[in-house]
Task: inverse folding
C-alpha cells in the first residue's frame, strides 16, 4: 500500500471514530435491541442445577462486562452492524464500507494495560459476588482463543501479550475472589459466513439466507456454535453460568407474542441451534451449570433476564435484572453514569422483589476500567459493607414494599430498608404499617449494630433514628434488622 493510501485510510478511520463516538455518547439501545422478561418459566429438575441456582440466588449482585473491538471507537456494541431502521448510523458512510471498517477494528485493538485482577478488585470492593463476561458479542469478535475462527483477540496486535487469552484470565481473576463465573456467549454471529453469508445482503439481525434451502450451511453454523461452547466448557476452568444472548436465534415454535412485541423481523425458517445437544455436552463437562438462554422458554432458561428494567411486582421464578451503570453496556466516552445512590436503590428494589441485579460496565480500549466507574463501585460497596445483611442470602416476602421502604427476610430476621434521595433530609422517625414487629422485638440499625427505640401505634411502627445518623447530608438507604 502506498504512503498516500495509508494516510487516506488513517484519516477515514479517524473520521469514523469521531462520528461514531459522538453517536455513541447519546445512543441508548432502542427497545428493538432489548430482551424483555419471559412470561413463562419451567423449573429445572436436575438436583445439581437446582443447588447451583439456589447458590446463585443468594449472591444478589453481579458484574456484567461488555468488552470487544467496539471499545476502540467507544460505540454501542455490535448493533451498528445491523441494518435495521432503529439503528442510528452516519448516513454519509456506505453500509458495506461501515461493516469493513468495524470488522477491521481488530487490527488496532491492543489493550496493553489489561489487568483483570484490578477488575476483580473493583467488583469485590462493590460487594459483587458473581461475574458474566462477554466471550463473544453479536459482531463475532472472540475474546477467547477459539480454534473455530481467526477473528479473535489472540490473532491481532495483542496476541503476544502474556494474557492474550482474555476470557481465561478474566475468569481466573474473579475465581480467585470466589466469584461465581458466567460466560456470556452470543448465539448469532454476524462475522461468520455461516450466519451472515456474503452471497446476500444483511438486512437485519437474522441469518441472511434461507436456512431450509441451504441447510448444509446452517448445519455448519450449528457445528461452529457447538464447538465454540465446547471450548469454553473445556478449557476455561469451572464455569457456573452459560449466559446465551441473541434470543431471536431460537426454534420457530418458541416464537410467541412476547417475541413479536420486540418489533424485530421474524424469518419464516427456524433458527434453532440444537440446544439439547449443547446442553448435554455442557453439563457433562460442567455439572450443574446454569443456562440463561434468554427469553427462550423451556428447560434452558433456568432464570429470566429482564433487560434495562425492573419488574413491576415480586416474582417467584428465579430472575435477574441486567442494568448498565451508564446508558451503554460497553465503554463510550462521556457516558453519563448512574449515581451510586440510584444503583443501591435499584439493587434494594430488585432484591426485595426476589431477583438478582447484574450491573453492566465497560472497560476502556487500553484494558482499564474508567476511574469514575471504579469510584462509583467503591461507593456502592461502602453501603453494602454496612448493610449487606439485608441483601445477601435473603428472600422476598409478599409485603415487600411500603412506600419508600422495602423488606427482605432470612431464616431469622426481617429487614426494613428505607430509601432516600441524595441530599434529602432524614426524618426523626421512620414508620411503616407492613411486617410489623412484636412489642418485644429487637430492632437494630445495621450500620452500627446498635438497638434503636421504636413504638407501635395505630397500626404502625415508628422507629427513632439516632441524631448522628440524621445529621448526615447523604444516605442512600437506612437498613434495620427486626428479630421478633
Result:
Amino acid at each position: 500500500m502506498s504512503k498516500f493510501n495509508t494516510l487516506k485510510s488513517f484519516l477515514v478511520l479517524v473520521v469514523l471514530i469521531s462520528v461514531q463516538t459522538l453517536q455513541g455518547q447519546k445512543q441508548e439501545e432502542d427497545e428493538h435491541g432489548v430482551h424483555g422478561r419471559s412470561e413463562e418459566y419451567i423449573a429445572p429438575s436436575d438436583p445439581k442445577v437446582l443447588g447451583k441456582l439456589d447458590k446463585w440466588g443468594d449472591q444478589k449482585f453481579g458484574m456484567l462486562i461488555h468488552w470487544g473491538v467496539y471499545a476502540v471507537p467507544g460505540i454501542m456494541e455490535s448493533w451498528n452492524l445491523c441494518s435495521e431502521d432503529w439503528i442510528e448510523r452516519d448516513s454519509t458512510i456506505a453500509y458495506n464500507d461501515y461493516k469493513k471498517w468495524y470488522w477491521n477494528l481488530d487490527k488496532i485493538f491492543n489493550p496493553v494495560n489489561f489487568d483483570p485482577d484490578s477488575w476483580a478488585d473493583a467488583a469485590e470492593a462493590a460487594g459483587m459476588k458473581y461475574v458474566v463476561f462477554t466471550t463473544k458479542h453479536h459482531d463475532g469478535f472472540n475474546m477467547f482463543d477459539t480454534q473455530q475462527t481467526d477473528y479473535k483477540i489472540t490473532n491481532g496486535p495483542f496476541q503476544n501479550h502474556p494474557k492474550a487469552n482474555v476470557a481465561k484470565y478474566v475468569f481466573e481473576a474473579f475465581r480467585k475472589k470466589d466469584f461465581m463465573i458466567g460466560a456470556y456467549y452470543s448465539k448469532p454471529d454476524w462475522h461468520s459466513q455461516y450466519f451472515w453469508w456474503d452471497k446476500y445482503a444483511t438486512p437485519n439481525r437474522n441469518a441472511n439466507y434461507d436456512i431450509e434451502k441451504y441447510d448444509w450451511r446452517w448445519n455448519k453454523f450449528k457445528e461452529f456454535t457447538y464447538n465454540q461452547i465446547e471450548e469454553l466448557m473445556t478449557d476455561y476452568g469451572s464455569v457456573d453460568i452459560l449466559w446465551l444472548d441473541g434470543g431471536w436465534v431460537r426454534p420457530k415454535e418458541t416464537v410467541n407474542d412476547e417475541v413479536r412485541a420486540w418489533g424485530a423481523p421474524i424469518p419464516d425458517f427456524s433458527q434453532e441451534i440444537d440446544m439439547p445437544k449443547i446442553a448435554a455436552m455442557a453439563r457433562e463437562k460442567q455439572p450443574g451449570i446454569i443456562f440463561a438462554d434468554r427469553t427462550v422458554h423451556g428447560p434452558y432458561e433456568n432464570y429470566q433476564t429482564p433487560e434495562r428494567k425492573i419488574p413491576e411486582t415480586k416474582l417467584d421464578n428465579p430472575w435477574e435484572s441486567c442494568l448498565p451503570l451508564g446508558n451503554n453496556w460497553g465503554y463510550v466516552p462521556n457516558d453519563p453514569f448512574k449515581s451510586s445512590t440510584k444503583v443501591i436503590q435499584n439493587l434494594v428494589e430488585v432484591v426485595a422483589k426476589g431477583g438478582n441485579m447484574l450491573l453492566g460496565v465497560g472497560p476502556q480500549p487500553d484494558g482499564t476500567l474508567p476511574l469514575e466507574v471504579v469510584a462509583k463501585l467503591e461507593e456502592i460497596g461502602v453501603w453494602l459493607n454496612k448493610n449487606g445483611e439485608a441483601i445477601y442470602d435473603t428472600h422476598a416476602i409478599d409485603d415487600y414494599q411500603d412506600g419508600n421502604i422495602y423488606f427482605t427476610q432470612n431464616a431469622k430476621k426481617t429487614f426494613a430498608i428505607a430509601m432516600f434521595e441524595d441530599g434529602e433530609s432524614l426524618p426523626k422517625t421512620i414508620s411503616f404499617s407492613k411486617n410489623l414487629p412484636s412489642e418485644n422485638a429487637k430492632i437494630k440499625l445495621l450500620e452500627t449494630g446498635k438497638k434503636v427505640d421504636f413504638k407501635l401505634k395505630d397500626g404502625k411502627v415508628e422507629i427513632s433514628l439516632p441524631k448522628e445518623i440524621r445529621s448526615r447530608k447523604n444516605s442512600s438507604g437506612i437498613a434495620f434488622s427486626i428479630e421478633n
